[in-house]
Amino acid sequence: MGRVSSVEDSLGHLLQVPGVTGVSLVDAVSGLSYGAAGPQNLGADECGRLAVLIDERLHSAGAEGELETVVVTGARHQLVLRVLPGCGDPLLLTVALERERANLALVLRHLDVFPAREAA
């Protein structure tokens, strides 16, 4: 139970970053949810499929290496998908932002120090 609480605490901490409206952490392969925070429904399954599709397309276009971060922007919102490699299946951290209030660089900095390896 300590791990789940730690993950939920970490997700809740990300909600304190200005402009962040929702956060979820899922297994990128199975879609198993490790936790979510915030009122925004992030559609974890859809985000996982989007990350896999982008990764496949990048590799077919000749890109090398692994997918790290994808930022999807809209007129009012942004969505950040961060792949977190772990001991097992990679984890997908999804963060929804309100574009007018969020500082994307600050959010990315917080994601760099996200302690997601505890959940792996």
What descriptive keywords fit this protein?
single chain; 120 residues; alpha+beta; five-stranded antiparallel β-sheet; 3 helices; 5 strands; 33% helix; 28% strand; globular; disordered C terminus
First-last Cα distance = 14 Å
Count of helix runs: 3
The helix/strand order is HEEHEEEH
Strand order of the largest sheet: 2-1-5-4-3
Low-pLDDT segments:
116-120
Average pLDDT, rounded to a whole number, is 79
Radius of gyration: 14 Å
**Class computed from helices, strands and strand pairing:** alpha+beta
User: Biggest β-sheet: count, sense, barrel?
Assistant: 5 strands, antiparallel
Helix-residue proportion: 25-40%
DSSP strand content? 25-35%
The dominant shape is globular
Total beta-strand segments: 5
What do you see in this structure?
There is one protein chain. The chain is an alpha+beta fold. Helices cover 33% and strands 28% of the residues. A hairpin with a 5-residue loop joins β1 (20-27) and β2 (33-37). Residues 116-120 have low confidence and may be disordered.
Write the layout of secondary structure elements.
Elements: H1 2-15, E1 20-27, E2 33-37, H2 44-60, E3 69-73, E4 77-84, E5 91-98, H3 104-112
Antiparallel strand pairs: 1-2, 1-5, 3-4, 4-5
Please give a quick description of this structure.
The chain has 120 residues and is an alpha+beta fold. The protein has helices spanning 2-15, 44-60, 104-112; strands spanning 20-27, 33-37, 69-73, 77-84, 91-98. It is 33% helix and 28% strand.
